[in-house]
DNA sequence: GGCTGCTAGGAAAGCGCTTACCTATGTGAT
DNA sequence: ATCACATAGGTAAGCGCTTTCCTAGCAGCC
């Protein structure tokens, strides 16, 4: 690897001068020297060593992002927003998949700190686990103490900057619409109960149903894995457990698709006999038949805002932005049968 | 940020000793000293500066990945394989989205070189553009000259290690199956013609049809954008241009879904009147109605193999692994109507 | 022509770490 | 008791870069 010294030697100047030319320093350099340096750079295919640069002038050029899993469409969208803003700021981004393992999340924060990243964005859902939350907060504080910036998306663990989707509002929208269409016997296909995202959505749904005079009873909620199979299984259990069920609320679209699959397998018409609604408005929601009624979260925007907070000027106090949820009406929800 | 020197001072030892206990060096250290160092590390929440470490002992801990777009399910899957292996090797991964912009790809290679990443994995499709290919090869060579490792997935540009999906075989499988089911008037919804992935798939399809005695005529191919809208538009044009068309081959699943949408909008039964096949077997392929017959590519495996090559021992000569494509039969392909 | 005052370029320190090399201590053998 | 040797721990160099500080050279002025 060619070094600055190599370039300087070849150009017949001091490393200081070479550095000044390469970084376009404010200090003026004679044109002939400048040219010689530039030629040497080209000849040697010199690229400055980012680590040495960082050591000499602490100006971080990489940001870290911790998500549950980039290959999940939810995080793929979120990440797109994060990346866009990071790229606009000239930053590279390290993406870490925690696969919903809190321990791994902690490890990654540590590794990112060691990498001296400019900022860490933690995306995903928080956990109902006080011990973990405390340890995470502690690690983040240690990182921030060294000048790092932190922003979280969709989770509450951090006392600083946060961008939140209106999960509870989304649940509320769904509940209200279901009631409006006459549904009373409603089953809920929920994800893992430890995730705050799930409980937030559920809280909104509960509130809307209670306000409408038809409170949700706990035995009509099934906590399952956050994917198709989990959705199908939970839907099956609910169908068996609740006679006369007219609607299924899945707390994300993957589970809703699973529920749809199960209903088709049982030859139950959707929405003729049972309506299904999802959450997140993933691309798949529009592609299935019937197309899913769901709640749209501005994921790209959420990611973009989070990265903007993380990379923009630090605020003296914590900023929390909430981005609205909207109902997307498609075919999978219809009026309740008599 | 606490430094090694801080730790050493607090523990009352030299930086050398502190370094030795922290890195578990082979040199033995007395237990009481070791303990004091460890306590100091804990007290100060010391995390070694990865850049300084890298400068002192050139042992890269980060790898770079360049993809078209992580939020595209194709790359999401690929990336999952890449990440898994990188994580197993204890490496963090920087993911760069080129958004199919060759210029940006080049820039990223440069930035990754500056970051001294241990390896660069270039994923996606190559371009039919000799100038670009040469420039890319040159940049990669410069990077490799500094000890970096390079592997490519799904592209031919690199003289070294490569992992390839059997794109042509996939096209061939589709062609053969179409013929077997009696289809003769076949339209092709292709992606951008500059992508080698597209032309490879097309070549396989062409070969199979030609071997079956029904060569594909060029006016039955429409090059469009690689997404739903492109697929819908191209499908519409083909339907209008080719009377009696009985099958539509889309060169990826997104375009196939677009085609399906268009056919439904025109009330054309699938596969009753027109069959549709896709490529890639993305999750959505199983979710649409009718479920898509498509070609499965082992994407996770492809990514994993590429990262394994990139992180494993260097070979003296280039290794090219081809991973097989398989036909996934679902409902969207039926026999040709009379 | 001699002085001041500026400027372009170089020398060198230092960022945080690892490690080769050296010193001082303790051990065992004689 | 003396010496040789092994060994724990320290000293310092150096990784590649930036930047402060300094020097040498020059122009401009009286």
TrEMBL record, chains A, B:
It comes from the Bacteria. GO terms for molecular function: DNA-binding transcription factor activity; transcription cis-regulatory region binding. InterPro entries: HTH_LacI (IPR000843), LacI/GalR-like_sensor (IPR046335), Lambda_DNA-bd_dom_sf (IPR010982), Peripla_BP_I (IPR028082). Gene3D superfamilies: 3.40.50.2300, lambda repressor-like DNA-binding domains. Keywords: DNA-binding, Transcription, Transcription regulation. The keyword Cell inner membrane does not apply. Transmembrane segments: none annotated. Residues 2-57 form the HTH lacI-type domain. Pfam families: LacI (PF00356), Peripla_BP_3 (PF13377). PANTHER family: LACI-RELATED TRANSCRIPTIONAL REPRESSOR, LACTOSE OPERON REPRESSOR. This is Transcriptional regulator, LacI family.
